[in-house]
UniProtKB/TrEMBL annotation:
Gene that encodes it: nadB
Domain FAD-dependent oxidoreductase 2 FAD-binding: 7-382
InterPro entries named in the record: FAD-dep_OxRdtase_2_FAD-bd, FAD/NAD-bd_sf, Fum_R/Succ_DH_flav-like_C_sf, Fum_Rdtase/Succ_DH_flav-like_C, NadB, Succ_DH/fumarate_Rdtase_cat_sf
Protein name: L-aspartate oxidase
Organism: Halomonas citrativorans
Biological classification of the source: Bacteria, Pseudomonadati, Pseudomonadota, Gammaproteobacteria, Oceanospirillales
Record keywords: FAD, Flavoprotein, Oxidoreductase, Pyridine nucleotide biosynthesis
């Protein structure tokens, strides 16, 4: 019997992956794979903060209730209670590791750190580091990971798939290095922390969003994917067709920002009693409707009435970034549009991150724990990363596989050749077509005809790609194949949901079903003859 090269292989270096690595490395050897080009992933760009019950004026039941309401009837209440209950300890874990959160300077403050409020929350429970919380957390944890003697950080490998032995256990992963040579990393436990699938869409809130590749790696081993149809669109991304993505935090509305239409009028007050602080699906659909009715392609987010001092204090990052794009948010409103932001669905897991495939775990946005239901409430995402990564670490520390069986030995393929210019252009064109199809047909508002058209277009893309790359060990081909398949499964999940709920709004099925159920798909649902 051979020996794995590491106890725990972690794929992904956002908050979930870094937390897991640090929380387990004192007992088990860890290899963390995070290619250099992934440094601009979603965790780093999380602005608003982390939701947790920290103030004595708040309580766990209120956080549970707000989360269940936002999830629109599809949350797993046990998962919600598990997450909320473990939230305060997760925040303290970050504080103990040196994350510097914004203090509350008020002499009568009931909690040492400033707590803001965001959409869907009925209390101030968002702890933050100014308006760059994700960056503060990631930078701190990265420094700790780099200094830990029992963690090996691999920045030179892009993972393409997972390994599985004859017993069905996941035994590691394979990929290519910067020289395009195949690399194999074997492990007793493998954990995916690869993020979500916002990259399936043209407009996102992250400069380098994932496209769900990790979800498909797990599906290729037989894992179940849940709730793929619930893709969250953040209501307020900076509108600039010629510039990079940039998120305008939920906290901007939490501190009193107004949404205005082309006529300069607030419109959320007529739609929901919570106005700008309604859950994200409600706000995003309202903005989308205003854009469809107007001519400018966006709405306005106005915080001028807060005053320059408050804007400088609460939103220094947003202020500076908008200024770099020619917008002075102290003097003019911000043009905003909804953009793909967060995948509520993913690999089905339990409270310890187990996927049902022995040896394979998933934490963070790549997983579907049941916490978010049909719509994620603001700032519950980093909370989920922390709570489930720490729970996964606790479970792995207690696990003892009696016997480790290596995956079957296969001939090492030659190094992946570099694509020709024509091939690069063709793959880029097909990826653009996929994103356009998803943005047009599988977005904020959907229809049976649009979903059916998307289903046909994606099937055609899959056939084109298969004809180009059959039999090749070609990273770009393999990754695009995974992305196309995940998009196809997302469309199938949307077609099978005959109702409107949370982030899935169908013009053909505008009502709720009386007994909602989570969707569940596997790779077998892509087989020919599957009924949609």
């Amino acid at each position: 019997m051979s020996t794995p090269t590491t106890d725990v292989l972690i794929i992904g270096g956002g908050v979930a992956g870094l937390t897991l690595a640090l929380d387990i490395a004192d007992k088990l050897s860890v290899t963390l794979v995070n290619p250099a080009h992934n440094d601009k992933g979603a965790s780093r760009w999380a602005q608003g903060g982390i939701a947790a019950v920290l103030s004595p004026e708040d309580n766990l039941e209120a956080h549970v209730r707000d989360t269940l309401v936002a999830g629109d009837g599809l949350c797993d209440e046990q998962a919600v209670r598990f997450t909320v209950t473990h939230g305060p300890a997760a925040i303290q874990w970050l504080i103990d590791r040196g994350v510097y959160f914004t203090p509350d300077p008020a002499p009568d403050a009931c909690y040492p750190y400033h707590l803001t409020r965001e959409g869907g929350h009925n209390a101030r429970r968002i702890i933050h580091a100014d308006d760059a919380t994700g960056r503060a957390v990631v930078d701190t944890l990265q420094d700790k990971v780099a200094a830990h003697a029992n963690i090996t950080l691999r920045r030179d490998i892009t993972i393409l798939g997972l390994l599985q032995n004859s017993h069905g256990h996941c035994t590691g992963a394979y990929g290519v290095d910067t020289e395009r040579q195949r690399q194999t990393l074997t492990a007793t436990y493998t954990t995916l922390a690869t993020g979500g699938a916002s990259g399936l869409y043209r407009y996102t809130t992250t400069p380098t969003p994932g496209s769900g590749e990790g979800m498909m790696m797990a599906a290729e081993l037989g894992a179940r994917l849940m709730n793929l149809e619930f893709q969250q669109f953040h209501p307020t991304s900076l509108y600039d067709p010629n510039g990079p993505a940039f998120l305008i935090s939920e906290a901007v509305r939490g501190e009193g920002g107004y949404l205005l239409n082309e006529a300069g009028e607030r419109f959320m007050t007529a739609i929901d009693p919570r106005a700008e602080l309604a859950p994200r699906d409600v706000v995003a659909r309202a903005i989308d409707a205003q854009i469809q009715q107007g001519t400018q392609g966006h709405v306005w987010l106005d915080i001028r009435h807060l005053g320059e001092k408050a804007i400088h204090h609460h939103f220094p990052t947003i202020l500076a970034h908008c200024a770099s794009r020619g917008i002075d948010i102290t003097q003019q409103p911000i043009p905003v549009v909804p953009a793909a932001h967060y995948s509520c669905g993913g690999i089905a897991t339990d409270h310890q991150g187990a996927t049902g495939i022995p040896g394979l775990y998933a934490v963070g946005e790549v997983a579907c724990t049941g916490l978010h239901g049909a719509n994620r409430m603001a700032s519950n995402s980093l909370l989920e990363c922390l709570v489930y990564a720490r729970s996964c670490a606790s479970a792995l520390r207690e696990q003892h596989l009696n016997e480790w069986h290596a995956p079957p030995i296969t001939p090492t393929p030659p190094s992946a050749r570099r694509l020709s210019t024509e091939e690069q252009d063709l793959l880029a064109q097909w990826r653009h077509e996929l994103r356009t199809t998803m943005s047009q047909q599988v977005s904020i508002v959907r229809s049976n005809s649009g979903l059916a058209a998307a289903h046909e277009q994606l099937a055609l893309l899959d056939k084109r790609l298969e004809s180009l790359g059959a039999g090749q060990f070609q990273p770009e081909y393999m990754q695009l194949r995974q992305v196309i398949r995940l998009a196809q499964l997302t469309v199938i999940a949307a077609l099978k949901r005959h109702e409107s709920r949370g982030l899935h709004y169908s013009m053909d099925w505008p009502s709720h079903l009386p007994a909602p159920a989570a969707s569940c798909l596997t790779l077998a649902d892509l087989m020919p003859g599957t009924v949609v």
